[in-house]
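Annex B. Sample input.
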Amino acid sequence: MAKRLYDDACGTAHALELIGERWGLLVMRELMLGARRFNELRADLPGISANVLTQRLEGLEARLLVVRRRLPPPASVQVYELTQWGYEAEPLIQMLGRWAARSPWHDPTLPISGVSVMLSFRTMLDPARIGDLDIRAGFVFGDMTYAAHLSAQGFDVARGPVEGCDIVFTGSPHALAGAVYGGVPLEALADQDLLVAEGDPALLARFCGLFPLPPKVQLPPE
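Annex B, continued. Sample output.
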């Protein structure tokens, strides 16, 4: 358990004791789409040190939220994975993300990981804009590939090959976020070698318009 407790019976207080340490919830976020290696986690959390990441993983393991296991040959490497209870925290991460996106101080230009972008799509998807759309979308971020099924039932995404997808985005998660949330034209990102979008142009444009951000809280007039 956390070194400092709140001495408060409220479930919110206990939740903070479980995952309230700096980086704790972000480590869990990075595991929401499946098991990952230590170096993969550190690469997608550029502000964390190896020592702190080790501490957070050990703490989450002690709190029954993360497990360590070794992949079978030929990989034979250690990975970290959420427990079933750990995976149940996804709605919490989604609601926090949607709530915080309304902040006037939220900076969407900061770095973002592939997992974070995928989870944000699952969070921000507007069912009213989907209509009869039923497609498979692929995402290639370096060595990591994700395949998603997008339909009226939602945005179902998992790590996997992108072959056979109707549209495929290859490049930087940050660039993809810029296209979807910042309105940066896909052609401009391609010209800068930041993101390549393959598929029907109309379908690509429609995809980028499915994830509206919530309205910002207005600052009081000066």
